[in-house]
Write a structure and sequence with these properties.
Blueprint lengths: L5 E2 L5 H14 L3 E3 L7 H11 L7 E6 L6 H15 L4 E6 L7 H16 L3 E7 L3 H10 L6 E5 L7 H10 L2 E5 L4 H4 L12 H10 L3 H11 L3 E2 L6 H8 L8 H8 L16 H4 L7
Helix pairs in contact: 1-2, 1-10, 2-3, 3-4, 8-9
Length: 281
């Protein structure tokens, strides 16, 4: 899996084909979508239009909680693969733990294990799993998730989750890697893009704050999946392979952690509050 991928959360379906085509032209070879984003069809369309061979693009998508359960999750694969227009998904992950129905979460993961054994997916994983969710999952299932995709940016980096993932051999993948959730949602604590420490490091390298945050993830071994619909930012976020942050700079960004989650509390995710039907392919 290419460590740097392209995110499409909140990218409207009518913008998605162009955004993903631009990303693929820029050099990205990994796209992160989700059944719940409502744009899998357009991601698939962009990959076909790019002219790239299917094997050159790593496609990651997520099963929404409404499709948890063994049979329901097997069918969720059919829905996602059908919309994407692919036979095989490179990485299929559970979008959220469902703490109030962890039995369904485990059944959903067992379906992922079956899809993996059958070769319908190349890897399986989870998202927004806290260490105690991982423990519960690992006790009940046999395949260690390849990836745990969690909120991680300088203001909420989740070092304990990253350490626990590493202990199990799970790759942490950062969502909102440049802190999008600190500036596109109302909230306290400020925007990572305007952080003076990050801005100072950016100036020292002749780079942008977004590029510094992406380097910080990559140099510490995390995957990152920044989102943009603007060609110049799509290019900027990919142009991060020819400079290096020092150990002191990495530590300075680590020290910005405020320990306050910006995304939903995993415990607050229930079928009643967040459940919604995912359409058929
Ligand atoms: P990001 O950290 O990627 O930030 C995206 C925001 O930053 C957008 O508002 C974008 O606007 C803006 N932006 C992008 N590049 C730049 C730049 N270089 N300079 C300034 N602004 C920029 O946040 P996301 O929350 O979108 O996270 C990335 C991806 O992670 C998602 O798209 C999705 O794939 C995944 N995700 C997963 C979640 C989960 O629960 N598993 C939850 C949230 C996200 P514009 O488009 O106008 O450029």
């Amino acid at each position: 899996m290419p460590a740097l991928g392209f995110g499409v959360f909140q990218t409207a379906p009518e913008e998605t084909v162009q955004a993903v085509e631009t990303a693929l032209r820029t050099g990205y070879r990994h796209v992160d979508t989700a059944a719940a984003y409502g744009n899998e069809r357009e991601v698939g369309e962009a990959i076909r239009r790019s002219g790239l061979d299917r094997s050159e693009v790593f496609v990651e998508t997520k099963v929404w909680i409404s499709d948890y359960g063994y049979d329901a999750t097997l069918h969720a694969f059919d829905k996602s693969a059908g919309k994407l227009g692919v036979d095989q998904i490179d990485l299929l992950i559970l979008h959220q733990p469902l703490p109030s129905r962890f039995d369904l979460t485990i059944d959903a993961y067992r379906a992922l294990e079956t899809l993996l054994a059958d070769g319908r997916v190349r890897a399986i994983g989870v998202s927004n799993f806290m260490p105690h969710h991982l423990d519960q999952l690992l006790r009940a299932t046999s395949v260690v998730p390849a990836v745990n995709q969690v909120e991680s940016h300088p203001y909420f980096s989740q070092p304990e989750v990253i350490a626990e993932d590493a202990r199990h051999g799970i790759l942490t993948q950062a969502w909102s890697p440049i802190g999008g959730i600190t500036f596109y949602r109302e909230g306290e604590g400020g925007s990572t893009l305007e952080d003076p420490t990050i801005a100072g490091i950016a100036r020292a390298h002749g780079r942008t704050p977004a590029q510094v945050m992406l380097r910080w993830h990559l140099q510490q071994g995390r995957s990152a999946i920044p989102k943009s619909t603007r060609p110049e930012r799509i290019a900027e976020n990919f142009d991060v392979f020819d400079f290096e942050l020092t150990g002191a700079e990495l530590a300075a960004v680590d020290a910005l952690d405020q320990g306050v989650r910006r995304g939903p509390e995993p415990a607050a995710i229930t079928l009643e509050t967040f459940g919604r039907e995912i359409p058929e392919a």
